[in-house]
Amino acid sequence: MFLNRLKIFFITTIIMGSILLIYSLYNSYKFKNSPLEKNIQERIQKKYLYLQSLAYTKFGITRKVPLIISDKLPAKFFGIATYSKKTGKIEIYLNKNRFKESLDYMIDDVLPHEYAHAIMFILGDFSDENAGHSKKWQDICIALEGKKCNRFVNNNDIIFDKTNLF
Membrane spanning segments where (predicted)? Predict the structure, then answer.
C-alpha cells in the first residue's frame, strides 16, 4: 500500500516536472524567436519619446537617435550607444535577452543610461573619463531621470526587482 502511494507520488512528480520543463522550454523558444510583446514595445516607445522630450527641454536637442532592440548583443551588455566616426550616425542598442530578466530595469535604468551616452555624442563629447561615464555624462543621465546613473550594472537591483511582489 505505502509503496503504491510512493510510486504514484514519484510518477506524478516526474510528470509535473516534465510538463514544467516543456513549458519553460517553449517559453524560451517563443521569446527567442518572436519580437518583444506589444505592451513591452509600447512601454519602451513611451519612455523613449519621453527621453526625447527631456533631451529637447533640458539640452535643446532635436536629433532623433534610432533605438534598436537586438538579440545579437553579447550577454554582458544590457545596452550600448554607438557612434560612427565615418557617418556620424548614433544608435542605441538594447539587449532583447535582458528584458527577460528585468523589464523595469531595462526601461528605467538602461535606456536613460544609453540615451545619456547618445547625448554626449551629439554634444561632441567623446570623453574617455571613467570609460565614458564622466561627471558630465552622469549629470545628463540624472537630467534624463535615470534611476541609477552608475557605470556598471548592480545585479542586486535586478534581483530585488525580480523578488519585489508589490
Answer: 6-26
